[in-house]
Amino acid sequence: MSRVELKDLRKNFGGLEVIKGVDLTVEPGEFCVFVGPSGCGKSTLLRMISGLEEQSSGTIEIGGRDVTRSEPSERGIAMVFQNYALYPHLSVRENIGFGLSLARTPKDEMRRKVETVAETLQLTDYLERKPKALSGGQRQRVAIGRAIVRDPEVFLFDEPLSNLDAALRSQMRIELTELHERLRATMIYVTHDQVEAMTMADKIVVLNGGRIEQVGTPMELYERPATPFVAGFIGSPRMNLFEGDLAREMGCEVYGIRPEHLEVSETEGRWTGRVRHVERLGADTILHLEVEALGPLLARVDGSRTFNPGQTVHATPNTDKEFRY
Amino acid sequence: MTRRGYIIGAISLLVAFVVFVIPFLFVAINAMKTAQDASSLDFSLPERWVFWENLVTTVQTRDYALLLAYWNSIVITVCAIALLVVFGAMVGFVIQRRPSRTSRVVYAFILAGLMIPPAVVPTIWVLQGINLFKTLNGMILIQVAYGLGFTVLLYRAFISTIPRELDEAAIIDGAKPWQIFFRVVLPLLKPVTLTIIVVQSITIFNDFTHPLYYLPGRENITVQLTLYNFQSQFVSQMNLLFMNILLITIPPLLVFIFFNRQIVAGMTSGAVKG
């Protein structure tokens, strides 16, 4: 359990600056999620913390120790990769114990550690199998086991769930959260999926174009997004954002309202529009409206109400929940 | 299968039989004939079967030259293959994983080694200069030099299919570069290594011209050069020559049969989402 501190971290690829000065503190035992669109530098930032990518300037401290110039294996980190990166020629036991065998750990101790980890992850029956004989979820657990057995100060996850199907992904989200509660280790998790970020994180770091947009708890980011980018990124379906006339009318540059904070009525309301498309999710229904002078508008309504494409409806924003930038 | 398929299959089998099996049968039959009988060089069955006598004579000729040749050829082949596999895989690994100006220059040299034909006389001059001419060591190095271009090319292409995350996972596990190579990458190169062993060992073992140029001397004889024991301008002993051919064909045949079954692909399946 260690604090991770990044100070003015920068990274250039050739002439292109991809990380433009990141200052961040991840508290001990925190589950911190880096989220952002592809190409925002979140994976690069994680790889810089791991030491796989060298920083152009700035410092990295893990547990109060400056590790900026240390080898990845000396930083007290473990990493889980997007495609698992299991050694295909080694059994699950050898995969988990690979780091220990490199460190010349005595055989008995290695066996004991590997089996303890396998038990935690319910992999005991698969210890002698090769990775190709495992399912996606089991492979992911082996990759996590390989990280746990190193007993690291900080766990790094690089989009670990993106190769799994939806059902398995939500199950693994819960397993990871439970794992975090059990180990109480500092974890840094990279994803482009804001659902993963919202459901798992203690702290979310929203990145955009190599800069931190906002840092906060999931609900802080949802309720008080600092920039239009964060407002549009956090929350599903995404927030309606408007520039131009409407925003000027509201006395701001960008005006935002979440789909769930719109009151939709058949009879009267502030904006009048036509229903273009109806997405029924069961509990809720997402309406895609085409509002004159505004353009497309998303609204979330109760699943019990019925709307048809082509119908004319009225939408009114909840004034407490408006965002002005 | 359709009728058309049968016909095409039958024709292919026939062609393969004519090209590969008939010459072998011709050699085998003539290896069992007497000298007189074999000199007519026809496809008739032997009048008298003298397989064992021919075998003993062939082996004993020139003070057991054939056995010495076997030994020399095996030493050259085994050492050259071992060096080729280790160096080829290492060079391929570095060139593929660490692109830089240096590695591009090295790669250009390797391609040049494939394209530019070897020159015999300067090579001999160099070998004499470093006292390796007429030695097995010199021959081994020459075979390595000739084979390295092809080997590196194959390894480089194959290594590019091994996900880089495996290297990175090993780095995080605390592996040094040489440990990444020997414990993670090299085991995954098994399919291509087997291919290289089969192709190169047969080439090197069956090499006739290079030992002829670079390895003169009675004690340096290699298997292909033993054919000269029975063939000269004035006297040729066809039955013994064919017996010799038969004997020196066996080792490459065994290598091929043994390894061909083991060339397995798909070793990397399971490394990434499969």
Automatic annotation (TrEMBL), chain A:
InterPro entries for this protein? AAA+_ATPase, ABC_transporter-like_ATP-bd, ABC_transporter-like_CS, ABC_transpr_MalK-like, ABC_transpr_MalK/UgpC-like, Mo/tungstate-bd_C_term_dom, NA-bd_OB-fold, P-loop_NTPase
Reply yes or no: does the keyword Endoplasmic reticulum apply: no
Concerning CDD domains, the annotation shows: ABC_MalK_N
Entry's SMART domains?
AAA
Domain ABC transporter, residue spans: 4-234
Q: Which Pfam families does the record match to this protein?
A: ABC_tran, TOBE_2
Going by the UniProt record, its keywords in alphabetical order are: ATP-binding, Nucleotide-binding, Transport
This entry carries the following GO cellular component terms, namely: ATP-binding cassette (ABC) transporter complex, substrate-binding subunit-containing; maltose transport complex
Mind listing the GO molecular function terms for this protein?
A: ABC-type maltose transporter activity; ATP binding; ATP hydrolysis activity
The record's family statement is: Belongs to the ABC transporter superfamily.
**Would you tell me the protein name for this molecule?**
sn-glycerol-3-phosphate ABC transporter ATP-binding protein UgpC
Origin organism lineage? Bacteria, Pseudomonadati, Pseudomonadota, Alphaproteobacteria, Rhodobacterales
Gene name of the encoded protein: ugpC
Automatic annotation (TrEMBL), chain B:
- Where located? Cell inner membrane; Cell membrane
Quote the cellular component terms of the Gene Ontology held in the record: plasma membrane
Pfam families the UniProt entry points to: BPD_transp_1
Kindly list the residue ranges recorded as spanning the membrane. Answer: 7-29, 69-93, 105-127, 139-159, 180-205, 240-259
BP GO terms, sorted: transmembrane transport
InterPro entries assigned:
MetI-like, MetI-like_sf
Keywords, alphabetical = Cell inner membrane, Cell membrane, Membrane, Transmembrane, Transmembrane helix, Transport
Provide the membrane topology annotation: Multi-pass membrane protein
Task: List, for all copies, the residue spans of the domain called ABC transmembrane type-1.
Answer: 70-259
What's the family? Belongs to the binding-protein-dependent transport system permease family.
**Main role?**
Part of the ABC transporter complex UgpBAEC involved in sn-glycerol-3-phosphate (G3P) import. Probably responsible for the translocation of the substrate across the membrane.
Report quaternary structure and partners.
The complex is composed of two ATP-binding proteins (UgpC), two transmembrane proteins (UgpA and UgpE) and a solute-binding protein (UgpB).
The name under which this protein is listed is sn-glycerol-3-phosphate transport system permease protein UgpE
Which organism encodes this protein?
Histidinibacterium aquaticum
